[in-house]
């Protein structure tokens, strides 16, 4: 009898296809698909640079107009296609009448119009590198406070910004706001200080006559006002003078090591373990698993201790990094009782850190403390990046929608126990969020 030699081959092909489909489907379900990157849409080849300045800028604008909608998973969920493309055409036509900074600002505006906080550009990154002023500012109670600065501008530390270049702070905020990619107003509030600290941005918005210097009017704690002409410089936060140092008060615990990926402090006087988790990523030389083992080894010696996880500054990364922490909690049911586990959230809690906070709240009975998050529970993410031709601006875009709240679509994740930071808290070094978590 003649046998069909192709049948085993067909069976093998069918089995392989089924296995591949199952693997792909599983990776899609987890949301983690690094090995599938080759299957995703790729940016188009860069055009050959044009000969003139205007034509080169127009190439960059038109590349943005074609590639961002093509690569983004859902580019027109907020802005309509016609409006988006009209904005691209208008900017391309306006290029001969605009300086470089004005064109860049309009590109930032177009990118932010997508309405997705993960879809953004990085004007401070090379090769564009809009330099920043050497100071850190934060909105607190509707006031823009200087938290720290280089020694050259130490007079500004702890002061409130009143005017910028003769413009009211409200006018500057309204001008900068449309450039900030955001899912909600809280994320805009958290993002505007970085843009305000770039004189080239203010120059591109026609708020300043120069792109490399700007005059700020400040109000000191005693009510006196003073002006400083500020210039961009290398930002080295480690060498900045903080408002706590300036005032001669101890730096609060939550501000002591924000540059570390993760760290902990056992607080015997409060019978609590404080863990600050600032980046959803593995730290070189300290795998997260070994860090978790160390934390819970200490924690297990005090069966009544509270556990406080602080993610108020965590802007995301890979949400699975926290899995060993979650596994350790699952192995300790007593920590999942109400009043034992707390998660501090805030305007800087975003992306994967937000997803971690949701998981701990929903599955581990954690109590959320602090302020509403800058991140939106249901959001676009799983980002990839491309550069614009000729200018090199780095553009990031989303490739997936994360549905973390199937029953609704809240703009923020709200705390169970609100603990809003005040200017007085800043000036006295108090942490209302940790205080709330440690209340008896």
What does this structure look like?
With 440 residues, this protein is an alpha/beta fold. It folds into three domains: 42-129 and 382-399, Transcription Regulator spoIIAA (2-Layer Sandwich), CATH 3.30.750; 135-247, PDZ domain (Pdz3 Domain); 253-375 and 412-437, 2-enoyl-CoA Hydratase, Chain A, domain 1 (Alpha-Beta Complex). 33% of the residues lie in helices and 19% in strands. It contains 13 helices and 16 strands. The chain has helices at 6-30, 53-71, 81-94, 100-112, 169-176, 185-196, 199-204, 243-247, 288-299, 323-330, 351-363, 423-428, 432-437; strands at residues 120-121, 135-140, 143-149, 160-164, 167-168, 214-219, 225-230, 241-242, 262-267, 272-277, 306-310, 341-345, 367-370, 379-387, 394-402, 417-418. The strands form four sheets. Strands 9-10-11-12-13-16 form a six-stranded mixed β-sheet. The longest helix has 25 residues, at 6-30. It starts with 5 loop residues before the first helix and ends with a helix. 38% of the residues are buried. The model is unreliable at 1-37 (pLDDT under 50).
Summarize the helices and strands and which ones pair or pack.
Blueprint: H1 6-30, H2 53-71, H3 81-94, H4 100-112, E1 120-121, E2 135-140, E3 143-149, E4 160-164, E5 167-168, H5 169-176, H6 185-196, H7 199-204, E6 214-219, E7 225-230, E8 241-242, H8 243-247, E9 262-267, E10 272-277, H9 288-299, E11 306-310, H10 323-330, E12 341-345, H11 351-363, E13 367-370, E14 379-387, E15 394-402, E16 417-418, H12 423-428, H13 432-437
Parallel strand pairs: 10-11, 11-12, 12-13, 13-16
Antiparallel strand pairs: 1-15, 2-3, 3-8, 4-5, 4-6, 6-7, 9-10, 14-15
Helix pairs in contact: 2-3, 3-4
């Amino acid at each position: 009898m003649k046998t069909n030699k192709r049948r085993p081959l067909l069976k093998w092909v069918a089995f392989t296809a089924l296995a591949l489909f199952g693997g792909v489907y599983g990776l899609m379900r987890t949301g983690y698909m690094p090995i599938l990157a080759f299957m995703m849409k790729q940016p188009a080849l860069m055009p050959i640079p044009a000969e003139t300045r205007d034509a080169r800028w127009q190439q960059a604008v038109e590349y943005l107009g074609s590639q961002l909608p093509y690569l983004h998973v859902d580019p027109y969920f907020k802005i309509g296609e016609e409006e988006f493309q009209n904005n691209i055409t208008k900017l391309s036509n306006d290029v001969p009448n605009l300086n470089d900074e004005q064109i860049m600002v309009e590109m930032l505006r177009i990118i932010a119009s997508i309405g997705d906080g993960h879809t953004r550009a990085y004007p401070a990154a090379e090769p564009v590198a809009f330099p920043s002023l050497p100071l850190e500012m934060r909105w607190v109670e509707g006031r823009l406070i200087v938290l720290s600065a280089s020694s050259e501008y130490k007079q500004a530390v702890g002061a409130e910004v009143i005017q910028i270049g003769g413009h009211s702070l409200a006018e500057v905020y309204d001008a900068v706001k449309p450039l900030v990619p955001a899912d909600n107003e809280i994320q805009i509030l958290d993002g505007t200080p970085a843009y305000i600290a770039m004189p080239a941005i203010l120059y591109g918005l026609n708020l300043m006559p120069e792109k490399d210097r700007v005059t700020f009017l400040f109000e000191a704690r005693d009510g006196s006002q003073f002006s400083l002409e500020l210039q961009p410089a290398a930002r080295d936060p480690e060498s900045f003078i903080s408002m706590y140092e300036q005032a001669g008060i101890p730096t609060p615990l939550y501000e002591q090591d924000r540059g570390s990926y993760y760290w902990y402090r056992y607080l015997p006087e409060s019978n609590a373990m404080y863990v600050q988790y600032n980046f959803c990523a593995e730290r070189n030389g300290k795998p997260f698993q070994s860090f978790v083992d160390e934390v819970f080894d200490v924690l297990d010696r005090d069966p009544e201790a509270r556990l406080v996880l602080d993610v108020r500054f965590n802007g995301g990364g890979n949400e699975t990094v926290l899995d060993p922490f979650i596994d350790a909690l699952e192995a300790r049911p007593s920590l999942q009782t109400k009043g034992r586990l707390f998660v501090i959230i805030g305007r800087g809690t975003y992306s994967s850190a937000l997803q971690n906070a949701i998981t701990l709240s929903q599955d581990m009975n954690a109590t959320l403390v602090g302020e509403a998050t800058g991140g939106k529970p249901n959001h676009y993410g799983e980002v990839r990046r491309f550069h614009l031709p000729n200018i090199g601006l780095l553009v990031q875009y989303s490739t997936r929608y994360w549905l973390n709240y199937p029953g609704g679509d809240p703009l923020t994740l709200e705390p169970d126990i609100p603990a809003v930071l005040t200017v007085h808290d800043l000036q006295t070094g108090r942490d209302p969020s940790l205080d709330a978590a440690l209340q008896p």
